[in-house]
Design brief:
Helix content: 40-55%
Strand content: 15-25%
Largest sheet: 6 strands, mixed
């Protein structure tokens, strides 16, 4: 599988999960890449996904850059000197953050939001090592023996021993020379062999790097081709490409780490309408410190917060600015003319004080066409007044968190959906669910959940069996607290379901913008699967759970894994 790189000034605090992928139903191509990223110190987490590696890399780069900025601020705060100097610096920083809330819209007017496709192409060169890391073998020749004529004494000369003494010295020198010569021959032979082996390793080393360079260039060329393909698809108005392009634009929008962006995009090609469900920052998440004072008696730094009225006013200003800014960015970046109108529905998640439960409400909604919006001078407008003049819908006070009916809902209709078939009525105690056709099993699961949600007006639809969407059924639960879009996947397996299936479900949930996911199987799940789903809005239903649900709705069947295996053998 391809890979991505994480470039950060504080890699030790960033935890990157394994690069995962969701494959097509036929297993012949990757539909989408996923990677999980966490920041230890900031306690941030995000799963980033994209249909192509280069898009995933671009999204990761933007995310990590934002986290680096946020961490730099965090470190600055942690490392400040105590005392009045620290208080003064923190106060200046707090004032700057509060003032920046009013510049959210103005910031985008100084930025060209169009995507330069060439910047998505990796133009780096393959980095060759400066040299072969092993030093060339060498050795130093030993000094040749030196002949020194012996000294002959008077008595040795008197008794005629001079000749013998000289002869003995010359013979010894000759032997030493022979030994030295043999040693040098051996040394040169060993050196020659070592150099030859070194030359061989060096040749292999550079050939290996040449092969790596060729592979690097081939991968680079393939990546460039994918960029060109996406650019071409965007130019031709391909729905998925237009959505990915819009996603790139929004991910690059720099809010100076004010909040983690989260949104759902849909594109209506016939009407050239981009629909956007955007999660706005909550009131509590916005900066609220206006001053920091140093208390000499305790050595503490005490924060003074802005009043509740100002907090609500800031929230309202931020929400309207984000709406106008997002619409501006999408229109400005649309060089191909794919977007004639934009629907922006702004949502906020909050804890309902009446129930203590988390809720998510639509607070503002705007549907605007390009000519109308582009005829506005955003540098001179008051955001709320501008929003209202565009016939945007919102509560009188956004801070009241009163939900409004959007101008238009995002579609629950999906061209992947097909008419459901009634399967349950044909079941009896002798029906082995593990041996029935996988298509009938998907329709059975759809039928069961339709009965499950019927009491509260829910709807369940099954997708085409040939779809590559990775979804077997989708439920739309209207319950205001626990409801939403629910992805259901059916696995008629005769083996234990591994963690990869649960991971695929989670990725599909993110891709579909679903609030929950349910995985149903005739078998059971491995321990890694249960471990992965812990803490996530995922329900794992095994064979026993499925039979119990059937019984609850008045149907009988059985699951015999062994018999199913024999039948398929």
């Amino acid at each position: 599988m391809d890979s991505v790189t994480i470039q950060s000034n504080n890699l030790e605090n960033i935890v990157v999960g394994a690069l995962d992928a969701r494959w097509s139903a036929r297993g012949d191509r990757i539909l989408r890449y996923y990677i999980d990223v966490r920041h230890r110190k900031l306690n941030l987490h995000k799963e980033v996904s994209a249909p192509e590696i280069f898009i995933l890399q671009s999204k990761l780069d933007a995310l990590i850059a934002g986290w680096d900025d946020k961490y730099a601020t965090y470190q600055k705060r942690q490392n400040l000197l105590s005392g009045q100097a620290a208080a003064d610096e923190l106060t200046a920083d707090a004032i700057q953050k509060l003032q920046s809330l009013n510049g959210i819209l103005a910031h985008t007017l100084r930025v060209d939001d169009a995507i330069d496709w060439e910047t998505l192409k990796d133009r780096s060169q393959y980095e060759y090592p400066n040299s072969f890391p092993e030093p060339k073998p060498s050795s130093t020749a030993a000094l040749s023996p030196t002949y020194t004529e012996p000294t002959v004494s008077f008595f040795q000369m008197l008794f005629g021993k001079k000749a013998a003494i000289l002869s003995e010295a010359q013979d010894a020198h000759a032997v030493a020379m022979q030994e030295w010569h043999a040693s040098e021959v051996h040394r040169n032979e060993v050196l020659t062999h070592s150099v030859n082996e070194w030359e061989g390793r060096r040749k292999i080393f550079w050939e290996d790097h040449k092969a790596r360079e060729d592979a690097f260039k081939a991968e680079q060329a393939a990546s460039h081709a994918e960029v060109d393909r996406l650019a071409s698809a965007v130019a031709s108005g391909d729905e998925e490409a237009v959505i990915e392009h819009a996603s790139l634009v929004l991910e690059r929008s720099d809010y100076d780490s004010l909040f983690e962006k989260s949104y759902l995009l849909q594109y209506d090609r016939p009407r050239k309408l981009m629909k956007l469900a955007y999660d706005l920052p909550s009131i509590e998440s916005l900066p609220a410190t206006k001053a920091v004072k140093f208390v000499k008696s305790t050595g503490e730094l005490n924060e003074t917060l802005i009043g509740e009225r100002d907090r609500k006013a800031n929230f309202e200003a931020v929400a309207y600015q984000i709406c106008l800014r997002t619409v501006h960015e999408l229109f400005e970046a649309d060089d191909a003319g794919n977007i004639d109108a934009i629907l922006f529905n702004g949502f906020v998640a909050f804890i309902d004080p009446a129930t203590g439960l988390e809720k998510r409400s639509c607070l503002l909604s705007l549907l605007v066409d390009r000519p109308t919006f582009c005829g506005i001078d955003l540098a001179r407008v008051e955001p709320k007044t501008c929003f209202k003049s565009l016939k945007g819908v919102s509560a009188a006070s956004l801070a009241s968190l009163a939900p409004i009916a959007p101008v238009m809902e995002l579609d629950t209709e999906d061209r992947r959906f097909v008419d459901g078939r009634e399967i349950a009525s044909s079941l009896d105690q002798g029906t082995n669910l593990a041996a029935m056709s996988w298509e009938d099993f998907e329709h059975l699961v759809r039928e069961l959940f339709e009965k499950e949600f019927a009491a509260r007006g829910g709807e369940v639809k099954v997708t085409q069996s040939t779809s590559d969407g990775g979804v077997d059924a989708v439920a739309f639960d209207p319950d205001p607290i626990t409801g939403g879009k629910i992805v259901i996947q059916a696995k008629r397996y005769t083996r234990t379901v591994g963690v990869s299936a649960v991971r695929d479900l989670y990725g599909t949930m993110m891709n579909e913008g679903a609030s929950r996911g349910i995985l149903v199987t005739t078998a059971d799940y491995g321990p890694d699967a249960y471990k992965f789903m812990n803490g996530k809005p995922i329900t794992l239903m095994n064979g026993a759970n499925l039979l119990h649900m059937l019984e609850r709705h008045g149907f009988a069947a059985n699951i015999d894994i062994a018999a199913a295996k024999l039948a398929s053998a």
